[in-house]
Amino acid sequence: MDERRAVRISKYLARHLRHRPSDIGLVLDREGWTDVGGLLAAAARHGFPFTRAELGHVVAADGKGRYALEGNRIRAVQGHSVPVELDLPVTPPPDLLYHGTVGRFVAAIRRDGLRPMGRHAVHLSPDRATARLVGARRGAPVVLVVRAGRMAADGHEFRVTSNGVWLAVSVPPRYLR
Which of 58, 76, 131, 147 could form a disulfide with 98 if both were Cys (CB 3.0 to 4.6 A apart)? Predict the structure, then answer.
Protein backbone atom coordinates (compact mmCIF):
# COMPACT_ATOMS: atom_id res chain seq x y z
CA MET A 1 0.00 0.00 0.00
CA ASP A 2 1.20 3.51 -0.78
CA GLU A 3 2.56 5.10 2.44
CA ARG A 4 0.65 8.35 1.91
CA ARG A 5 -2.62 6.42 1.62
CA ALA A 6 -1.82 4.45 4.78
CA VAL A 7 -1.17 7.70 6.67
CA ARG A 8 -4.45 9.21 5.41
CA ILE A 9 -6.41 6.13 6.51
CA SER A 10 -4.68 6.12 9.91
CA LYS A 11 -5.52 9.78 10.48
CA TYR A 12 -9.10 9.12 9.41
CA LEU A 13 -9.31 6.29 11.93
CA ALA A 14 -7.87 8.46 14.70
CA ARG A 15 -10.34 11.24 13.99
CA HIS A 16 -13.39 9.00 13.94
CA LEU A 17 -12.48 6.29 16.46
CA ARG A 18 -11.06 8.71 19.06
CA HIS A 19 -12.72 12.06 18.63
CA ARG A 20 -15.65 12.43 16.24
CA PRO A 21 -17.41 9.15 15.48
CA SER A 22 -20.77 10.87 15.12
CA ASP A 23 -19.47 12.99 12.22
CA ILE A 24 -19.79 9.92 10.00
CA GLY A 25 -22.63 8.23 11.88
CA LEU A 26 -20.49 5.75 13.82
CA VAL A 27 -21.59 4.53 17.21
CA LEU A 28 -18.92 3.32 19.61
CA ASP A 29 -19.88 0.91 22.35
CA ARG A 30 -19.01 1.57 25.99
CA GLU A 31 -15.45 0.30 25.43
CA GLY A 32 -14.90 2.24 22.19
CA TRP A 33 -15.48 -0.64 19.76
CA THR A 34 -17.39 -0.31 16.51
CA ASP A 35 -18.28 -2.70 13.71
CA VAL A 36 -15.73 -2.86 10.87
CA GLY A 37 -18.44 -3.18 8.22
CA GLY A 38 -20.19 -0.13 9.64
CA LEU A 39 -16.92 1.83 9.63
CA LEU A 40 -16.16 0.92 6.01
CA ALA A 41 -19.71 1.80 4.90
CA ALA A 42 -19.67 5.11 6.82
CA ALA A 43 -16.29 6.06 5.34
CA ALA A 44 -17.54 5.31 1.83
CA ARG A 45 -20.76 7.29 2.40
CA HIS A 46 -18.66 10.26 3.51
CA GLY A 47 -16.31 10.26 0.53
CA PHE A 48 -13.33 8.35 1.89
CA PRO A 49 -13.72 4.70 0.85
CA PHE A 50 -11.13 2.12 1.84
CA THR A 51 -11.14 -1.66 1.87
CA ARG A 52 -11.00 -4.20 4.67
CA ALA A 53 -7.56 -5.21 3.36
CA GLU A 54 -6.33 -1.60 3.55
CA LEU A 55 -7.75 -1.31 7.07
CA GLY A 56 -6.01 -4.52 8.12
CA HIS A 57 -2.73 -3.30 6.64
CA VAL A 58 -2.93 0.06 8.43
CA VAL A 59 -3.69 -1.56 11.79
CA ALA A 60 -0.98 -4.21 11.41
CA ALA A 61 1.66 -1.78 10.13
CA ASP A 62 1.03 0.92 12.74
CA GLY A 63 4.26 0.98 14.72
CA LYS A 64 2.58 2.75 17.62
CA GLY A 65 -0.18 0.15 17.95
CA ARG A 66 -2.91 2.80 18.02
CA TYR A 67 -5.74 0.46 16.98
CA ALA A 68 -7.08 -2.93 18.00
CA LEU A 69 -8.79 -5.06 15.38
CA GLU A 70 -10.56 -8.14 16.72
CA GLY A 71 -12.69 -10.10 14.29
CA ASN A 72 -15.33 -7.72 12.96
CA ARG A 73 -14.70 -4.90 15.42
CA ILE A 74 -12.13 -2.14 15.79
CA ARG A 75 -11.23 0.54 18.32
CA ALA A 76 -8.53 3.04 19.16
CA VAL A 77 -6.57 1.81 22.18
CA GLN A 78 -6.23 5.25 23.84
CA GLY A 79 -6.45 8.98 23.20
CA HIS A 80 -10.22 9.32 23.15
CA SER A 81 -11.91 12.65 23.66
CA VAL A 82 -15.32 10.94 23.58
CA PRO A 83 -16.44 9.02 26.66
CA VAL A 84 -15.26 5.40 26.69
CA GLU A 85 -14.40 2.87 29.37
CA LEU A 86 -11.37 1.00 28.14
CA ASP A 87 -11.69 -1.47 31.05
CA LEU A 88 -7.95 -1.63 31.57
CA PRO A 89 -6.93 -3.08 34.93
CA VAL A 90 -5.18 -0.93 37.51
CA THR A 91 -1.49 -1.75 37.12
CA PRO A 92 1.43 -0.84 39.39
CA PRO A 93 3.66 1.53 37.39
CA PRO A 94 7.44 1.62 37.27
CA ASP A 95 9.06 4.11 39.63
CA LEU A 96 9.43 6.67 36.86
CA LEU A 97 7.36 7.50 33.80
CA TYR A 98 7.83 10.36 31.35
CA HIS A 99 5.73 12.99 29.62
CA GLY A 100 6.77 14.82 26.46
CA THR A 101 5.65 18.41 25.97
CA VAL A 102 7.07 21.72 24.71
CA GLY A 103 8.48 24.66 26.62
CA ARG A 104 5.47 26.94 26.27
CA PHE A 105 3.39 24.56 28.44
CA VAL A 106 5.92 23.91 31.21
CA ALA A 107 4.94 26.84 33.49
CA ALA A 108 1.27 25.82 33.46
CA ILE A 109 2.18 22.18 34.04
CA ARG A 110 4.42 23.08 36.99
CA ARG A 111 1.52 25.09 38.44
CA ASP A 112 -1.43 22.78 37.66
CA GLY A 113 0.16 19.41 36.96
CA LEU A 114 -0.72 17.23 34.00
CA ARG A 115 -4.39 17.13 33.09
CA PRO A 116 -6.11 15.18 30.30
CA MET A 117 -7.04 18.39 28.43
CA GLY A 118 -10.16 16.98 26.77
CA ARG A 119 -8.86 13.43 26.51
CA HIS A 120 -9.83 10.37 28.48
CA ALA A 121 -6.60 10.39 30.52
CA VAL A 122 -3.08 11.80 30.77
CA HIS A 123 -0.69 9.83 28.55
CA LEU A 124 2.69 8.86 29.96
CA SER A 125 5.62 7.15 28.27
CA PRO A 126 7.71 4.32 29.69
CA ASP A 127 11.00 5.90 28.57
CA ARG A 128 12.59 9.26 27.82
CA ALA A 129 13.08 8.54 24.12
CA THR A 130 9.37 7.95 23.52
CA ALA A 131 8.42 11.03 25.54
CA ARG A 132 10.90 13.09 23.51
CA LEU A 133 9.26 11.92 20.27
CA VAL A 134 5.81 12.81 21.64
CA GLY A 135 6.95 16.29 22.65
CA ALA A 136 8.69 16.85 19.32
CA ARG A 137 5.35 16.72 17.48
CA ARG A 138 4.72 20.29 18.66
CA GLY A 139 8.23 21.79 18.64
CA ALA A 140 11.42 21.49 20.69
CA PRO A 141 10.63 18.72 23.19
CA VAL A 142 10.80 18.98 26.96
CA VAL A 143 10.67 15.71 28.87
CA LEU A 144 9.10 15.75 32.32
CA VAL A 145 9.83 12.98 34.81
CA VAL A 146 6.79 11.60 36.65
CA ARG A 147 7.42 9.94 40.01
CA ALA A 148 4.84 7.28 39.25
CA GLY A 149 5.89 4.88 41.99
CA ARG A 150 5.40 7.60 44.60
CA MET A 151 2.03 8.53 43.08
CA ALA A 152 0.87 4.90 43.22
CA ALA A 153 2.05 4.61 46.85
CA ASP A 154 -0.06 7.70 47.60
CA GLY A 155 -3.17 6.08 46.12
CA HIS A 156 -3.19 7.22 42.47
CA GLU A 157 -4.15 4.60 39.91
CA PHE A 158 -2.38 3.79 36.67
CA ARG A 159 -3.42 1.71 33.70
CA VAL A 160 -1.37 0.62 30.72
CA THR A 161 -2.66 0.12 27.18
CA SER A 162 -1.80 -2.75 24.88
CA ASN A 163 0.74 -0.53 23.12
CA GLY A 164 2.55 0.47 26.31
CA VAL A 165 1.08 3.92 26.93
CA TRP A 166 0.53 4.54 30.64
CA LEU A 167 -2.66 6.36 31.63
CA ALA A 168 -3.46 8.39 34.74
CA VAL A 169 -6.45 10.60 35.54
CA SER A 170 -4.02 13.45 36.28
CA VAL A 171 -0.53 14.06 37.65
CA PRO A 172 -0.33 16.65 40.45
CA PRO A 173 2.68 18.99 40.22
CA ARG A 174 4.37 17.54 43.30
CA TYR A 175 5.08 14.33 41.35
CA LEU A 176 6.82 16.11 38.45
CA ARG A 177 10.41 17.10 37.87
Answer: 131
Amino acid making up residue 93? P
Helices (H), the chain: 3-14, 36-45, 52-61, 103-112, 128-136, 148-153
Q: Examine the pLDDT at 144 and tell me if it is beyond 90.
A: yes
Which pLDDT score, from 0 to 100, does residue 59 have? Answer: 96
- Is the pLDDT score of 33 beyond 90? yes
Cα distance between residue 109 and residue 101, in whole Å: 10
Nearest to 133 by CA among 166, 102, 106, 109: 102
Contacts of 134 (CB under 8 A, 6+ apart): 99, 100, 123, 125, 141
Residues 56 and 69: beta-carbon distance below 8 Å: yes
pLDDT of residue 1: 85
Domains of the chain: 3-76 (1.10.10.970), 97-175 (3.20.170.30)
Q: What is the largest CA-CA distance in the chain?
A: 50
pLDDT at 108 over 90: yes
Question: Residue 17: phi, psi to the nearest 5?
Answer: -95, -20
User: What's the CA gap between 70 and 152, in Å, rounded?
Assistant: 32
Cα Rg of the chain, angstroms: 17
CB 168 within 8 A of CB 119: no
Torsion-angle region of residue 7: left (phi > 0), alpha (psi -120 to 50) or beta?
alpha
